[in-house]
Specification:
Blueprint lengths: L14 H14 L3 E3 L22 E3 L20 E3 L20 E3 L20 E3 L22 E3 L20 E3 L20 E3 L23 E3 L9 H7 L1 H10 L10 H60 L9 E3 L20 E3 L10 H7 L4 E2 L13 E2 L46
Parallel strand pairs: 1-2, 2-3, 3-4, 4-5, 5-6, 6-7, 7-8, 8-9, 10-11
Antiparallel strand pairs: 12-13
Helix pairs in contact: 2-3
Length: about 450
């Protein structure tokens, strides 16, 4: 894990306060010594502390201590030792020999490993190693031999696996493993018969061992926190129902289910869950029916819009021809790719029109001979169905040259088939034919 958020630079700003607290404690023989946040960097700054064998509680949290001296074990009556939020990187071997130490808080330090024999505490009940840099391979061999341990806090470290020896902590009631890199839990965790709190949130767990069903966590005081993992189905679905159902689910995969919740209580719980699910299902079905109705309505509206769109397009095409009157000699009329039915008007276009785009339509009958009588320039045929022409791609007439229109080309002069049906011959003249002068060719 990242290093603890505390500065380890030595300072003397609060040293006088620490000495004052020590002197007062010696004078009144106070068994509880609180030196929290006194700017202490070393035990040498607290002279006489290691000889105060009468103290039972020592608080040195929120200081800048880097090392713990072996002499701390001389405090033979010490029951509670709080060294949280310091800069401690190593611990002395003698620490685990303290005969009365019940609570040890070493959280928020810089521990990468623990000394050999660390698990030899004779009466330790609570051990907090949260927010350090510990891994499964840096724990001493006897770490899980502390039979008196009731609460173990290993959150915010670098564990990927939990050693099977965890089963030796027979009296463990609280196990906190949150915010590690745990990939799986050992099946031996199911042997912790007194466990009432299990915190595994913020890891990389995907499944739980079936043996977790052995845990007696059916009471209201039991806590199981599992958020922030990568659960796979059906684990994720089962966890949504609660820990009781999850435990029973795990037991279902065993040969002999031993879910500790009584059959009657479990049946009642299951009935409640089923009832809730049925209610939710009914809501979903009602919502689905409503959505289907709205969908049908939307389909009708879309169909209506499509019809209106088709009508509007036809009206626009007709309007473009009906309103074709212009004083601009460079006017361009583009109805390429259009399907207008108002083709009869095309024959009466005025000569002001300089570009008539009718390519990509369905013109079928255009007489080449008649076209050549009035078309004095090269015409290009594009994507129409010209059946009466010998050459379907283009036909050429002599090029006209004069001062006004030199090297100019007319393109895209085509008409809908309805205008020339029944082999009608249409004689073109310059007042009836639109020209395109394309100077780019």
């Amino acid at each position: 894990m990242d290093q603890a958020p505390v500065s380890c630079l030595p300072t003397n700003t609060k040293m006088s306060k620490a000495k004052k607290v020590l002197e007062e404690a010696r004078e009144i023989q106070n068994p509880e010594l609180d030196l929290m946040d006194k700017g202490v960097s070393t035990f040498e700054e607290m002279p006489g502390l290691l000889n105060m064998t009468n103290i039972t509680r020592l608080t040195l949290s929120h200081n800048k201590i880097k090392a713990v001296p072996p002499g701390l074990a001389n405090l033979s009556n010490l029951e509670i030792l709080n060294l949280a939020n310091n800069c401690i990187e190593e611990l002395p071997l003698s620490l685990s020999s303290m005969p009365k130490l019940r609570i040890l808080n070493l959280s928020i330090n810089r521990l990468y490993n623990l000394p050999r024999g660390f698990g030899a505490f004779p009466v330790l009940e609570v051990l907090d190693l949260t927010y350090n840099n510990l891994k499964e391979d840096t724990l001493p061999g006897n770490f899980f031999m502390m039979e008196t341990l009731r609460a173990l806090y290993l959150g915010d470290n670098d564990f990927e696996y939990l050693p099977p020896d965890i089963k030796n902590l027979k009296n463990l009631q609280i196990l906190v493993l949150r915010e590690n890199d745990l990939i799986e839990l050992p099946k031996e965790i199911g042997e912790l018969s007194r466990l009432r709190e299990l915190h595994v949130q913020g890891n990389r767990l995907t499944t739980l061992p079936p043996e977790i069903g052995n845990l007696d966590m059916a009471s209201n005081k039991s806590v199981f926190k599992f958020e922030g993992n990568e659960w796979v189905a059906p684990i994720a679905d089962q966890l949504q129902l609660g820990i009781i159902q999850q435990i029973c689910y795990q037991q279902a995969s065993r040969t002999t289910p031993v879910c500790r919740q009584s059959q009657k209580n479990f049946k009642n719980s299951l009935n409640l869950v089923v009832s809730d699910l049925l209610a939710e299902l009914q809501e979903v079905l009602c919502e689905n029916a409503k959505l289907q109705s709205e969908n049908s309505s939307l389909k009708s509206e879309v169909a209506g819009l499509q019809d209106r769109n088709d009508t509007l397009i036809k009206a626009i095409h007709t309007s473009k021809i009906d309103q074709l009157r212009s004083e601009n000699e460079n006017l361009k009329l583009d109805i390429a790719k259009h399907e207008t039915d108002n083709t009869e008007r095309i024959k009466n276009l005025e000569s002001e029109i300089k570009l008539l785009q009718l390519s990509y339509n369905t013109a079928q009958s255009l007489n080449e001979e008649n076209a050549q009588k009035s078309a004095k320039y090269k015409n290009k045929l594009k994507s129409n169905s010209m059946h009466d022409l010998h050459t379907t791609q283009s036909f050429t007439v002599p090029q006209h040259r004069n001062l006004e229109t030199e090297n100019l080309i007319i393109s895209d002069i085509f008409f809908k088939s309805k205008a020339f049906c029944d082999n009608e011959l249409l004689l073109f003249n310059e007042n009836e034919l639109a020209f395109t002068f394309d100077e780019s060719i």
